[in-house]
Amino acid sequence: MNRTVRKLFSNASSLVGIVLLFIFIIIALFAPIIAPPLSDNPYQVPRMSWDVNPQPPGFPISDDIREVYDFMGTEIKYDKAICGTAEGGYDIFYGLIWGTRTAFKIGLITVTVAGFIGVFIGSISAYFGGWIDEGLMRITDIFLSFPFLVAAMVLTTILGRGLDKVMIALIVFGWMGYARLIRGSILSAKEETYVMAAKALGVKDIKIIWKHLLPNTIFPVMVQGTMSIGSMVITAAALSFLGVGAPVGYADWGQMVSFARNWIIGAPGHAGQYWYTVLYPGIFIVLFVLAWNLIGDTLRDILDPRLRGEL
Amino acid sequence: MIINNKEPLLEVIDLKTYFFTEEGVVKAVDGVDFEVYQGETLGIVGESGCGKSVTAFSIMRLLDYPGKTVGGKIVFKGYNLLEKSDDEMRKVRGKDIAMIFQEPMTALNPVLTVGFQISEALMMHFKIGKKEAINKSVELLKKVEIPMPEERANEYPHQLSGGMRQRAMIAMAMSCDPVLLIADEPTTALDVTIQAQILDLMRTLLREFNGSLIMITHDLGVIAEIADRIAIMYAGKIVEYANKRTIFYSPLHPYTFGLLTSIPRLDLEMKRLNVIPGVVPNPLHFPEGCKFNPRCSFVTDRCKEEEPQLIEVEEGHLVRCWNIDKVAQEVKKGLLVGV
Amino acid sequence: MLAYIIRRFLLLPIIILGVTFLIFCVFSLLSPMERLATYIHDPSTLKNPQSVERLINKYHLDDPFPLGYINWLKRIVRLDLGWSQTANQSVWDAICQRFPATLELVLYSIIPVILVGIWLGVISAVHHNDMLDQTIRVTAIIGWSLPTFVFGLLVLFIFYGILDWLPPGRLSSWAQDIVYASSNFHSYTHLITIDALLNGNISIFLDALRHLIAPIITLSYISWAFLLRITRSSMLDTLRKDYVRTARSKGVDEHTVIHLHAKRNALIPVITVAGMMIIGMLGGVMITETIFTYPGLGFWAATAAQQLDSGSVISFALLFATLMIVGNLIVDISYALIDPRVRLE
């Protein structure tokens, strides 16, 4: 374990990943200070104007909005859209800062839950073998028959919008990789002497899986988990982009990008005037995903030097 | 069986092959000299990592990155192989000098048929058609005593047994009637009974085409069966070089002595098997002086300071040791009482 | 080989049945009323309680689950997939009409990647050097971290917004007039680039191509990074193998060593990745087509999802799942074809 940590810190690319991740953690932790919420629900991005057109960076809060807050007695803690506003006057900067929390929430929760489900199914399948294995693996195949984004889109269309629905969709179609991975490792570990010995001693099945097999096979699953946090966040953002993800106005990077969709070309004669609507959210998503991928890539090298260079 | 009045077929002079790794330069082969005459078998013996395989790959010029031959000469039929162009070298490989590898499973290409792999060299070097080449490879398979050669030629390596694969490998190496065959641990991966068959086959074929063989192995049993002369290698250098009888009955290097007393023998009464203490030194950090000194039971202060030269103690017997006299006494005693 | 393929074909109906079952489970989360909405043409029918009840009975929407599944399956087999409000035509017609556009996009994305990507991967492995190694590694990770929708918007921003080179859509309006309205233009394949060539109309061909370039780049940039890297590392791995050395020891020339002895083996792991790549592209089709308003299946499905047209979305998922299953089958069979160890098992 020590060796792993040392390698993570001595490798240039994973070091970049760690620094990036650290910055994002800081942003997520201090979100209420960096971008103080203006309403009870901090994940609701405040609007800086009622105008549908995006407004450039430095745009001051419009008078009619200021009036509303004054009327409600809310103190306006900042009055400039540092990164501009998206379509409908939504403040991009606020969305980015609180969107960091959304990204962590999506990434960590979906990967953890999907990982647990996958490990559960995979280890049962591998340990008992026979018909249980055959049945569970065919079910896994069926779930794997859908392109991930398409499957998640179907489920969110049926369930309706909302971050919780997005996460459910990502989990329902996100556990299969872990199941296959852990099944493979357990199948090979099962033949090891220490498992044979435990079996011969009459140790209970559950205990063998829990005490002997999982600790020796879980590391690849964890690496896989790290690697897929990025793709989970991308898929959630893609759902928002397609208009079936987080509700309108929710602090979510995917939605910030989707706000840019209609404006990206710019007004006639002013090509590219709304560059900020895609650039800032784009940078946040890319860096966040990159951070996890860099760390995951190094972890995999450490895990299996033979895999070096394969994605 | 040294034929003094004859020019050697292959002469390796002061060969130096280094590996330029990230951790430093590994001197895998560091100044090796030997020669091979027509029709004879030279055995190169040593533990793994002593540089014996690297010597073979240097002769074939098949070193992988980051290995490089940095000095010396490899004179074959009067020409220095190291000075040949890549194209000229390609014409030597397979045609004049062929090679047999240790692990026939990995040395044969899994996606090509055995017949194709044998016929390839034939088509390459003799510019013959595919059909003729295939026919010839079936003949070769028959020659190496593979049953049903016609069917085998169409099969893939994984369909053959281990011994069968090595036979196919031999057929492949013999396909263009090479004058020199280099066999790198050809029997190590095989069962003992199959080992004997393969050795028999190699001996028969060698006699037939009067070719020379360099047999590389860590197994003195194999060497005892097949070699005429033997070079013992340790840490990239030859430590003893003599004919088979001398090596087995009057070795003068402590390492050779150690190797000999570590194998069970039927012709001598032995109380127990000897073990050479310690391990092969890390090639990045060879010891000062004689490289064998940390493991040697005859070690003196001089051994730790100064590296001995390979000196000719008698006609055709070269040893690299400061304490030849002591060893000679011990050998006499050891062999008499059986250690 | 035969046993292997037979097993794969026997599993095929089981997997497809499982896929339909899974979709039906998801579909059943909707109330009978909502499901009814996927079959009727005129939304106002839903306002009349009597006709709703009659229609629910007609389509067996309140049957118990197993019976409902069987009825639904029967309709699927008859290709009666319901009515797409989004496209204002039956779902099957909507699919048939949009399929060629998506096919054209996917084909043009996959074929160059596989042909050129593998070639580049092999080349870069043979001319092994550290700089290139690092560049490819970093490019692949960055490409992997750059979501399609961000990349696509950037492409649109630069090549259409600023440079005005690569417009969105599938054809310019003048070309549309010719392709869809003119009697001189015959649609043989419905792949416009190919039809244009068959009709001998170069300007239409160029126009279609101009509209295709940006979506192709967006859809395939990840695959390029991915395939190049895998081919390269697999090739590097293979070039170090004993049998490559054996081939050289026989005096085989370098070209044969690389393209016969090494490449055949190096391609075996690449096949898996190519399969994964095609799957990834199927997912990316929705986003790419949405960004470039390219009138294919993905654009339609994304619009349908936004408008909660669940019948269309479900049929789209069913279609793509089927494509994926077929794709996986092809991958598995090509595995067997290239690797005798699998073929002769």
Task: Please sum up the structure shown.
By secondary structure, chain B is of the alpha/beta class.
Description:
- By secondary structure, chain A is mostly helical.
- Chain A has one domain: Orthogonal Bundle (MetI-like fold), CATH 1.10.3720.10.
- Chain A contains 13 helices and four strands.
- Chain A has helices at residues 2-10, 12-29, 31-34, 63-72, 92-128, 130-144, 148-159, 163-172, 176-190, 193-200, 205-242, 253-260, 276-303, and strands at residues 59-60, 80-81, 266-267, 270-271.
- In chain A, helix 5 (92-128) runs parallel beside helix 13 and helix 11 packs parallel to helix 12 (253-260).
- The two termini of chain B are 29 Å apart.
- Chain B is globular, with a radius of gyration of 21 Å.
- In chain B, the strands form two sheets. An eight-stranded mixed sheet of chain B has the order 6-7-8-3-9-10-12-11, with helices on both faces. In chain B, strands 2-1-4-5 form a four-stranded antiparallel sheet.
- Chain B has 13 helices and twelve strands.
- Chain B is an alpha/beta fold and 339 residues long.
- The mean pLDDT of chain B is 87.
- Chain C is an all-alpha fold and 345 residues long.
- Helix content of chain C is 77%, strand content 1%.
- Chain C has helices at residues 2-27, 32-36, 49-58, 65-77, 91-126, 130-145, 148-162, 173-181, 192-198, 202-239, 242-249, 254-291, 297-306, 310-338, 340-343, and strands at 83-84, 89-90.
- The longest helix of chain C has 38 residues, at 202-239.
- Chain C is globular and about 85 Å long.
- The termini of chain C are close together.
- In chain C, 45% of the residues are buried.
- The mean pLDDT of chain C is 87.
- Classes of the chains: A mainly alpha (311), B alpha/beta (339), C mainly alpha (345).
